[in-house]
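Quiz preparation item.
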């Protein structure tokens, strides 16, 4: 009897899962398609059938994160005031960073991933929109630095391996509180 063949979507998910495990262990640059194939017990051609390159796998891994961030930007853009838009954006950033914290932890310091994000307009446009919306209409140094601290702080904190024991609800509460306090503090200083 012939062995049942997995659906293509299932095979793609298995490649992504194996790649993510190997990326976490070796980094993106040091992980080869052959290593992914070996991990799955398939040929390299089978991996190529699902993805044309390792970069395509990386993009597939980070795509859900950027889909969520894009949704956050769209929601924030519908808010009636700049303050409510910024608050919605920060809340959405926190939720996204927590929902994807394990994947983002693998990629947070990887230069290959940073280069791919810059190369893909749909990713770089979202990151620019986030920065613009958190900064607000006043593009002075204080607001730009505050916005950067909030974005970097949210993503850096949620992916910090020293904080892996902090549950999602606690992480959400503290990140929200700290972000709001930073905004208040910087607004009072201006």
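Solution:
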């Amino acid at each position: 009897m012939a062995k049942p063949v997995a659906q293509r979507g299932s095979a793609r998910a298995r490649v992504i899962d194996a790649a993510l495990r190997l990326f976490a262990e070796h980094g993106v640059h040091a992980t080869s398609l052959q290593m992914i194939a070996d991990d799955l017990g398939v040929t390299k051609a089978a991996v190529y059938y699902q993805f044309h390159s390792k970069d395509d796998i990386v993009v597939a891994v980070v795509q859900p994160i950027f889909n969520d961030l894009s949704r956050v930007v769209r929601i924030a853009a519908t808010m009636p005031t700049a303050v409510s838009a910024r608050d919605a954006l920060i809340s959405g950033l926190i939720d996204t960073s927590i929902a994807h914290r394990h994947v983002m932890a693998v990629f947070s310091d990887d230069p290959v991933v940073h280069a791919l994000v810059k190369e893909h307009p749909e990713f770089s446009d979202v990151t620019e929109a986030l920065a613009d919306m958190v900064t607000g209409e006043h593009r002075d140094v204080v607001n730009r630095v505050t916005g950067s601290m909030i974005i970097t702080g949210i993503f850096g904190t949620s992916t910090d391996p020293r904080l892996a024991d902090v549950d999602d609800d606690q992480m959400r509460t503290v990140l929200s509180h700290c972000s709001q306090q930073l905004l208040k503090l910087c607004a009072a200083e201006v």
